[in-house]
From TrEMBL:
SUPFAM superfamilies with a match to the protein in the record: lambda repressor-like DNA-binding domains
Domain HTH cro/C1-type, first and last residues per copy: 10-64
Origin species: Daejeonella rubra
Keywords, ordered alphabetically: Membrane, Transmembrane, Transmembrane helix
One Pfam assignment: HTH_19
Protein name stated in the entry: Transcriptional regulator, contains XRE-family HTH domain
Source superkingdom: Bacteria
Amino acid sequence: MKNFNFGENLRMIRIYKNVCQEGMASGLKISQASYSRIEGSRDLPEVQQINKIAETLGVKPKDLLSASWYAEAVNSSSGKTKESVAIISHKGQIAYGFLLAIAAWDSTFGAAAGAELESKDAIVFTGCIFFLVAFFLYYFTVKEAKLDLDDDTLRAEKG
């Protein structure tokens, strides 16, 4: 689960719920700067803080710890149940990577023509840069995160 970002997920839920950072901070009885640090961090806050944030936003704690809350919100508002959105299958990931490679290829020749590059070395160098950008775009956008939680509240258990 190395790709899950708690702060980013919290920010998206807060925006979806149409709540400002100041409103969240006052609901949590902390400063706006402290709340901003929570949203800016990838790390999970304390369990009690997660429960308090969930209560303030009017969501379940599992929504704060799961990347699938948006699919559930969209499906529940559209009347659909047990259906997911924005999940890329393995074939979709391959097609996405292929499209990025084509875009990098096209961008290379477009940049070479626009800059009037005649040197083969300069064109190959430009192509390598575009393919690296495409690779990192693919690597950082195709993610899979799954977290199953059943409780409405979280409890810290010591092992």
